[in-house]
Amino acid sequence: MKRKYYRRLVSFMAFLLIISSLNGQAIAQGLVNGSDEEWSFSAFGGNTSAERNPEPEAVDNGITLTATGGKISSSDEGMSFYFKEVPADTNFELRAKAKVISFNSNGSISTPNQKSFGLMLKDEIGSHRDSSTHTSSYMAIGALDTVMKGFNKKGTQTKLETFSENAVPLSGEVYDLSIKKSGETYVLTSNGESEIVTIEELFSDQLFAGIYVARDAEVVFQDLEIVIDDRQVNELFINDSEMKKEYLIGESLNLQGLAVTVVFEGGEERLLTEDEYIVSGFDSITPGPNTVTIHFLGASSTLDITILSLNITAVDIIYFQLKQFIMWEILLMQKE
């Protein structure tokens, strides 16, 4: 009886050891909520290691990524990356909620501007546990330079403006992050603030879309998903006859009256709502003609507007003493 008990106990312990050894591998293969096997994990790039960039940890409705190694610099993307492979010509939106456990909290880890976390689309990734320098084209949004912003790389790294309404990334902060890809136009959003970027041929045949941490970050990513829109557009029409076409310097774009119609493959025709399409190119800083582009699922169409110069046509002087002073100055100038 005792032998039978011990044999069962040994078998059970061996089973636990096997399960324990497979746990990291299972997570690395992408068990989001214990089901999706299409996600993968890789830690690669300069300053990464098994100790500094451990395997991801599955939590309720999400994944925890931790890194005390790696870096996001102008010449190297060393990171812990949890990703899915997607055809580069696909239109999709990558979304996740990032809950910061810690960020830039270890003073012994230098170069705070290389510490990072967020969402990234990458043209190539390094081999798992390869700590040699790695770089490739990418589009990203998240923490960099100790603030929240969008950034990308095609040959050289480009950093976009800081999201001024986003809180500085610290423990306890939460960010709703997304990258929307429409053809070669990308909308980068963090807590409601967005930047729109168009870069041609950023990716080759495949891209890698996912979440990442680098150098000094522990973040829980929840509600991670890639929403693919595989509808094919035949034509995109715009009717701007009822739209405001002239703007003053500094004035915001008004889309009221603009009608955007899409014709899908198969002949279905539909009028798009304002939140379905992407608008880029508007710039009311410089006077003159301005071309605005409407994007939808990789198709685009343009419209022309005009930014008017500010000209003074009249001055109304309220204060009597100031009026007297100006009139006196005019008389003096006329005498000269």
UniProtKB/TrEMBL annotation:
Presence of keyword Nucleotide-binding: no
Lineage, highest ranks first: Bacteria, Bacillati, Bacillota, Bacilli, Bacillales
Domain Pectate disaccharide-lyase-like N-terminal: 53-156
Keywords: Signal
Protein name, UniProt field: Uncharacterized protein
Organism name: Sutcliffiella rhizosphaerae
Pfam families: Big_3, PelX_N
Domain Ig-like: 242-306
InterPro entries associated with the record: Ig-like_bact (IPR022038), PelX-like_N (IPR058953)
Signal sequence, start to end: 1-28
